[in-house]
Each structure stands twice: as C-alpha cells, then as structure tokens.
Design a protein that fits this description.
Strand content: 15-25%
Number of domains: 1
Radius of gyration: 17 Å
Strand order of the largest sheet: 2-6-7-4-5
Largest sheet: 5 strands, mixed
C-alpha cells in the first residue's frame, strides 16, 4: 500500500503544523494519506483504506492534544467533500486535459479548486458552528478505482462515490464499533452529491476543542 502523505497548505488554508499548534485562528488544513497502492496504482481494498484513515484520524487527534496540552478533542464530525482541477496560472499544465488546468495531484491541494469544496464547507458550516478546525485526511480520484469495478457500474462508480463509501464506513466504525461519544454525526445520511462528478472526492474530519 502507498504511504505517501502531505501536510501541504493551499491558498486560504493553514498549514497542518499551524493548525494543530493553535498558532492560527480556527481554519481548515490537510493531513493527507494516499490510498493508492504503490505497486498497482489502484486504491487499496475498502477495509484496508478505512483502517488507514482510522489511524490517520487518531494520529491527527493525538498530534493536536500533544501540541495543545491544555485542550482535548470535545467532538468531531466525519464528512466528505470534493475538489476540481485548479486553473493553471502559468506552467504545470496537464497533458491529459486542456492547458487551462494544472495537473491534478491527490497530495497537493495547490492543484485543487476548492471554492465549493473544503473551504466552502468550512466557511458555510463549521466556522459558523464554532469548530476549532477541519482537516482533510485523504483525496481519491476515479483513475485509482480498478477498471473491473468501474465497468460493473459505469454510471455510478466515481471518485465521489468512493469518498462516500469511506466516509460512511468511518462513521459506522466510530459509532457502532468503537462507540466514541465524541462523534457528532447523528445519522448515516449521505448528504448532497455533485450534479457533475468532481475530479476528486475528499474525506475530512472537523473537530471542536475544549479545555481540560
């Protein structure tokens, strides 16, 4: 399995280190793990991907509480979002699409367009609801889904549906297996889906802190 990770910031977002240290006002950031197998280029089996993301969430919370020792995680919500290709501002053009867009990299948010994605979720929902931060933990693209899976349901399987499956499995785990009382998800509602399939699906965790 792939173990590439990225804590890259993007325009408008904070770096991971800034956010977990509380060095910036509440905002969104990235602590991404790649779920593509380095040997095959395909996404790892679903349960393996879920297990990887559980470790990513747990480690993220451990990082936050280690850096802000007077705080602890009070509650969190697991969600999904999406990203589209960012328009190129000079160089870095994609060879597989038009020269108007940057080459998309799952681990480089600077190649993403997030206007109605992660930063939109933060501005319109979590910031208003008093959350301490939102951290994207993975991004998946349709090209890492095995061909036989896409061929079985050609009008259904895409990056957004993969992100939805990961999100739901994570909610099931923290609610029904671990029984984590901090989980703020109150249903298994998949939420809204994009009218046009996005380039990538994103899984994130939003959290609130409280004093110890």
């Amino acid at each position: 399995m792939a173990d590439r990770q990225s804590t890259t910031s993007t325009k408008g977002g904070a770096t991971y280190d800034e956010l977990i240290k509380g060095a910036v006002d509440p905002y969104y950031s990235f602590n991404l793990v790649d779920l593509a197998d380095r040997r095959t280029g395909n996404v790892v089996p679903l349960q393996e991907g879920v297990n990887t993301l559980v470790r990513q969430i747990d480690q993220t919370f451990a990082d936050i509480e280690a850096q802000q020792q007077d705080k602890k995680i009070d509650s969190f919500i697991i969600g999904k979002s999406h990203a589209r290709q960012a328009k190129a501002g000079g160089g870095g053009y994609s060879k597989s699409y038009t020269k108007s867009y940057k080459e998309f990299d799952r681990l480089n948010p600077n190649t993403w367009s997030l206007d109605d994605g992660v930063n939109g979720r933060w501005r319109k929902q979590y910031d208003k609801d008093g959350y301490s931060g939102l951290i994207a933990i993975t991004a998946v693209t349709t090209d890492i889904i095995p061909g036989h899976v896409k061929d079985a349901h050609p009008n259904l399987i895409n990056a957004e549906m993969l992100a939805l499956a990961l999100e739901q499995q994570l909610i099931h785990y923290y609610m029904l297996e671990r029984g984590d009382p901090r989980l703020g998800n109150t249903s298994f509602d998949p939420g809204n889906l994009c009218k046009t399939p996005p380039y990538a699906g994103i899984v994130y965790v939003a959290y609130k802190l409280k004093d110890r």
